[in-house]
Amino acid sequence: MSEEKKSLNFLEQIIEEDLANGLPKEKLRFRFPPEPNGYLHIGHAASICLNFGLGLKYNAPVNLRFDDTNPAKEEQEYVDSIQHDVQWLGFQWDQVLYSSDYFQQLYDWTLEFIKQGKAYVDNQSSEQMAAQKGTPTEPGIDSPNRNRSVEENMELFLKMKNGEFEEGSHVLRAKIDMKHTNMHMRDPIMYRILKRHHHRTGNNWCIYPMYDWTHGESDYLEQISHSICTLEFKSHRDLYDWYLDQVVDADKLRPKQREFARRNLSYTVMSKRKLLQLVEEKIVTGWDDPRMPTISGLRRRGYSPESIRNFSEIAGIAKRDNVTDVALLEFCVKDHLNKTAPRVMAVLDPIKVIITNYPEEKEEFLDASYNDYEDGFGSRAIPFSREIYIEQEDFKEEANKKFFRLKLGSEVRLKNAYIIKAESVVKDEAGNITEIHCTYDEDSLSGSGTEESKRKVKGTLHWVSVKHAEKAEVRVYDRLFTDEAPDSYKDKDFKEFLNPDSLNIIKAFVEPSLKTAKILDRFQFQRLGYFCVDKDTTNEHLVFNRTVPLRDSWAKMGE
RNA sequence: UGAUCCAUGGUGUAAUGGUAGCACUCCGGUUUUUGGUAUCGUCAGUCAAGGUUCGAGUCCUUGUGGAUCAACCA
Q1: Which bases on strand B have an atom closer than 7 Å to a protein beta carbon?
Q2: pLDDT tens digit sequence for A259-272
Q3: Does ipTM exceed 0.90?
Q4: Other Cβ atoms closer than 10 A to A198
Q5: What's the CA–C1' distance between A219 and B65, in Å?
Q6: Per-residue confidence (pLDDT) for residue A490, from 0 to 100
Q7: Do residues A235 and A259 make contact, with C-beta atoms less than 8 angstroms apart?
Q8: Residue A41: closest CA among A233, A299, A325
């Protein structure tokens, strides 16, 4: 047991400091607050792992809170997918809550604001208000409606609430400071009129609170000790604190907002807007297209929750902008799948091999372990016969000594089977090789214990028996974009960098044991990569997705 | 010509004024019935200039570079 001291990230340091300054450990409480307006992606996974990870580390509850204050964009479908994704990642929340749970409380507080002269109704157009707001470098000016009487504000706000005004005609604003250097403090909108059906509150409300006026208060009501969000909310913190100042009880815990840098991944985009665009323009097949960086896409691609959690762990968090190399994510899946995935055989680009000295009608079932190096994986019988498929690229008529695979006049081992020697080829009129004729060494069967079986031959090939092979569709994925950061160019659209070869559909042959594989089962196709069973699979039609290829130092040599 | 935040190998992150470390990537060796895995190793970094200090990646100043902020979005 190495008592290695793990360094704390800056948020853990803040928490430790708060604890040292007297915050009781039992008061620690976190939350993950998605807006249910889209599917979760790998960037959200960072936040999920962070918040739920802190919960685990400090044995503190973590709420899943849907930030559902904009009925125009939010849907139950997204609520469901988000819950599914968080659970699939392996986390357990304390409570599922909704910002909409607090609409009444927020409204009651707002009445107090109005009575105390801290909020006013503005009936100017959004253009007028924008013009008065100033710019980051110039101060704003006060709205002509800023000094309405309490009575008038109360009356107008009630009319807003009762649906007597049109959408867009009136808003309620907090009275703060139109000259503040922070734009968010220039009399921000607290409520707008939205005559929309809300996925939870139905038509109970036609005024909806804005994000800023909801988030901190929700944190406070749930007694969240540390409200962790991404960097772009940094400038909202003044407002978060200002709102809290108006409502916080001295004997209750006051939540603290802190910000970290969102996680970006190379060769993809992460904004919901762009992801939505890929879906709507049918560039991908859906939110769960295996090329998407969504949790559902990664799941369908064959990523395991463990690998995603490990990725978040080792990528870490900080406050600077980053583009994390997708190779790190790929390393994490390969690392996990290497330990957990059974090894099987599949040939993606077949060429027929005929073993001329093997009896025509003979077939045998060879015992093959699902993992030669680890216990507990079990084994299955794989059929062997006179005709087999191997990969085209595993054969050359002539090649130099560095080519360990099959070539005329030399030997290779067939994995879990015999040593064969290539004798001749058959070609069609065009000169393409259609068959490779080999002979086999009858005494060389793997694991038979004979002298011949122990012979060292340099190459070992995977194969499937022609007679017994199952046909399968294999979807080979590559990165969706050709540029490391496709959305980092101001003058170019991210779609200019789409990779035209991000999907390759292959007709392959797989060993018969895979016939019974279930959707999402993960395998290593030996010498090729990790693959999982796609949901498009039916009894008649097997479909696999390539999660990630194996490292291939041979292919690299050729470059 | 504002405010706020950020700056450590190619990438991501540590070092809490005291030996710049870890992982990925790249490259090379060994092992191997997966050109995989495992294992060993190489290359590679504190944005710049001043200052404080016995000592600065860390503190201060000034630059430089980047990010964020002007939705009735979150």
Answers
A1: 1-8, 10-16, 23-28, 33-38, 66-74
A2: 999 999 999 999 99
A3: yes
A4: 21
A5: 37
A6: 83
A7: no
A8: A299
